[in-house]
Amino acid sequence: MTKGQITRNMIIERSAPVFNKKGIAGTSISEFMEVTGLAKGGIYRNFESKDEISTEAFNFLCNQLSEGISGVVKVKVTAKDKLFALLDFYRDVLVINDGGCPLLNFGAEADDTNLVIRKLAGEKIKALQARISGLVDSGISAGEFNSGTNSSHFAV
């Protein structure tokens, strides 16, 4: 990895939590400077705009979300336990400790203001719904959940 890529990744990793907690509109370049220790030129040498940083930060947070869910789900055996592990992850890690769900935080703000993130958020939300629906379907097949449960509606 080049020095430039290392710096770019550092900017993304350190600015992502700020975006998640304060929103795109509520986050200023001076806050990136503060959390990264870089001057404005150092940030703009790596990114063309704040929108580019926010898109990369959103993707970074979504990857962390997916990896976190996978980590807690893979150690469980039953579909029911996997589903509860996913829900507990959301409550304990995202809501209480980390500023909330980036899918909802970015998606709500980008709905009218940032078409790129709006599209990405929609895709990621659908993927999470499919993941939940798949867990419910597995639980129905295993007799853990009521056979009359509509997994797609449940996931929403």
UniProtKB/TrEMBL annotation:
Residues 28-47 bind DNA. Keywords: DNA-binding, Transcription, Transcription regulation. One of its GO terms (molecular function) is DNA binding. This is HTH tetR-type domain-containing protein. Residues 5-65 form the HTH tetR-type domain. It comes from Mucilaginibacter polytrichastri. InterPro entries: Homeodomain-like_sf, HTH_TetR, Tet_transcr_reg_TetR-rel_C_sf, TetR_C. It comes from the Bacteria. The keyword Amino-acid biosynthesis does not apply. The keyword DNA-binding applies.
